[in-house]
Structures are given as structure tokens and as C-alpha cells.
Amino acid sequence: MEEIKKKKEIFLDLSDTEKTARVCKALSSETRLEILKKLVEKAMTISELADTFYMPMSSMCLHIKTLKEADLISVIPKPGLRGSQKLCGIKAANINFDVFSHIDNTSQKPPAYIYMPVGHYSACQVHPPCGIASSMAYLYQEDTPYGFYSPNHTDASLLWLTKGFLEYQFPNFALTQGTPSLVEFSFEICSEAPGYNNNWPSDITLEINHIPVTTFMTKGDYGGRKGIYNPSWWSESNTQFGEYKRFGITPEGCYMNEKKVSSHTLNSLGMLTGYCFTFTLKVSETNQHIGGMNLFGKHFGDYNQDIIMKVEYHD
């Protein structure tokens, strides 16, 4: 009983239909319910779960991703003889769904979303080895920056480089339509090594309006199993998936995956001035680990998305 008390409770209502739908989707599969039942007994790696359910790793990864996105389980790296594995454990003990509670919150402004395809950068600087690919094919020959300047670069779903940056222009209209309580960017990213290397650290700097806000480390260029959303033509000897990052800006400061990394705010970063602001991911020569980066779009990796900006508002 003491162990159950340590688990979180999930509260659902109709004011946040996105979260409610995410949890309901996770619980709508008998297979995922059986997975939860196993994880109640003990924590297991994804490969152990795949063996238990006689299921391909790619299918099990998709189930685990759905449960993790619903915040029902935790997934943490576990060192092993064959590289790092993902250990899964139960995170939530109770789920409460109040159908009527949203009636008292009808005046709250719903979140705004801006979806930025990874190929829609406004500026870049790229040093080879590098490359750019759409969901259908390579957009140019590998290890030359020319493809990054081709008109077809807007079709990109995966970009990789050794040093340099990718800069995006986001409109700030959503920031002016209320009082933002949170502006959050989410994206999938990893290091860039020859082929892939699960132990290949890289320091990546995130800038807003050319102001360095934080430098975070990706631990590897991940492979060894197929990325959940990778197209069939993509070779298994290449990079497969990345780390999911959430960078948020609140009135109190900036946070990377909920850890405070800066005291900058929307005002100090100049995000409310003019019509847009820049969002830049950079591998700099001055960083300690110059391990490159892979930036994943909607049709690659483990997360079916490009770069997403979410704006939440005060009541």
C-alpha cells in the first residue's frame, strides 16, 4: 500500500480534451491494459515486454509510447550488456474523470498551437557530414550542405549536421491573444555520429532571438531498432530515433523538461516585439561535446510530430 501511495493521480475533465483523449486512447487497447497489469507486478524493459507478449519490438515500442504520452508509465534508460535499454514502470495509481467539472471553467481560454515542419527553417549553417531527407527519399546527396539550400528543403522530415545551426521564425500572434502562462516548444532530437552510436554525447544550444537560453546534452545517436514512424526505405544502419525535449517559458523563467535553466522571460527575450521571433538549435564549436545533431520531423523517429509551440493562458 505504501508503494501505491507514492504513485500519482491523474485527473481528467472535458476542459482539457487533448489530455483526456490521450489517456482514453492509452486505455482503449486490451493489449495495453495487459501491459499495465504486468508493470504493476514489476518494472520491465521494452525488450522483456516484447518477449512476454510475443510481439515485435516496433509494435511494443508503439504501445509503450502511447502509455508514456498518457503519463501512465515512466520510461528510463537502463545500462545493459548490449547498450542502453528502456526500463518501464507504473507511474499512475488512480485515474479520475469528472464529466461536469469543466462547466466551472468555460471562461478559460484554450491553448493555442503552432506546428512548424522541421524543413521550414528560415536560416541555417551546416557543416558535413550532414544530410536532409523527406518521408519519401533523400532530398540531396549526403554530406554536402547544398540540399539545405534547395527549394525542396521545406519537404524535409529529418535533418542532420555535425556543426552549425537551424533557425526557425515563429509568429508571435498567439502570444498577444491573452496573458500567456506557458509557452512550450516540443521536439525530437539526438546527436549525429557515423551510422549510429548510442553513446555519442552532443551539447546543443537553444537560442531565442539569438539569445542563448540553455545548452542541453543529447546522450547518443540512437539506433539498434527501427524508429516507430520511420519510413520503410530508411536503412536500419542509420539513425533511428531521438530524445523528446520540452522547453518552456513561464513568467518565472525557462525550463527544459521541467528543470529550470534560465531566468529569461517572454519580455527579456523580446518575444512580444514585432511580428515574429527566432527559435534556433545550434551545435557550436565552443561547446564541450561537439557531437552534431539529428532533428526529427513528423515521419521519422518515435514521435509523430515536427516542432510544436504550445501557448497556455492565465484565466
Task: Give a brief outline of the structure.
With 315 residues, the protein is of the alpha+beta class. The protein has helices spanning 2-5, 17-27, 30-41, 46-52, 57-69; strands at 8-13, 44-45, 73-78, 85-90, 92-98, 112-116, 123-127, 131-133, 158-161, 163-171, 180-190, 202-208, 211-218, 243-250, 253-256, 259-262, 276-283, 293-296, 307-313. Strand 12 and strand 13 (211-218) form a beta hairpin.
Please provide a written account of the structure.
- This protein has 315 residues and is an alpha+beta fold.
- Helices cover 15% and strands 36% of the residues.
- It is built from five helices and 19 strands.
- Strands 6, 8, 9, 11, 14, 15, 16, 18 and 19 form a nine-stranded antiparallel β-sheet that branches.
- A hairpin with a 2-residue loop joins strand 12 (202-208) and strand 13.
- It is globular.
Brief descriptors of the model:
single chain; 315 residues; alpha+beta; five-stranded antiparallel beta sheet; 5 helices; globular; disordered N terminus
Q: Give Rg in angstroms.
A: 20 Å
Number of helical elements? 5
Number of separate strands: 19
Distance between the termini: 37 Å
Tell me the series of helices and strands, N- to C-terminal.
HEHHEHHEEEEEEEEEEEEEEEEE
Q: Structural class, please?
A: alpha+beta
The global form is: globular
Q: Level of helix content?
A: 10-25%
Strand content: 35-45%
- Tell me about the largest β-sheet: 9 strands, antiparallel
Average pLDDT for all residues: 92
Q: Could you name the ranges where pLDDT drops below 50 across 5 or more consecutive residues? A: 1-5
